[in-house]
Amino acid sequence: MILKKLLLLLAIAFFVNFYAVGQIKNDVKNWVDEVSEELSSVPEFAALINYKFIDDIEKIGAIYYWMANNINFDTKAYFSKNKKTTYNFRYRSREEMDMKIQKIDNEIVDRVFKKKIGLSREYALLFKKLCNNSGIQCEVVEGFIEKPLKLSSKKALKGKTKHVWNAVCINNDWYAIDVSLAAGKIEKDKKKFISAYCESYYLYQLNSLLSAYYPRKKSWTAKLKPEIPVSMILGNQDIVSN
Fold it and tell me: pTM score, two decimals?
């Protein structure tokens, strides 16, 4: 009996801590709402964030809240037969290749910020750029995101990258963030994106209470712990993928 009570208290403490980390303060949201119409570029937004906030969690919250409420999912590209854009270029060294890839990514970021529309990878690139410009360590994570029943075998994980999200580092701990799913969902029968802000994809370590996340690189699986058994993972609504 005592052991059961102890386990219950530990579970409550864990989830209280989990939700405390994964909540954006109202004053951060109010500030974002005030400046949203004035924003014209990524550097400008990052500069305003650095001027207003010192705490990394508040900075990340401002970026997450703005993107999830202002960037729409590109259903036209998503449902297109040729939805994967390819870039062809020549290079003589790894350094030159990295520079050209970075240039392409910067062009994508500027386009998404200006047009307010993109696929999951484009969301992730913009989120990373805003974080990096705000002094926050952030990476793009490629992998798979599906309901657990669809990933019952290793064979189901093979193939193209299905989804792209982000990981941010706070006090040496890595947290996952999925701002494209936070923005809303797709009605596949109507080929329409429905804006619906969701804070459940903000700063979580679990893999995952809402969807099953499987990073392509195994190193991310170790970083984004603790994990929970697949049997405890709840199925998500229609998945918005790349």
Answer: 0.77
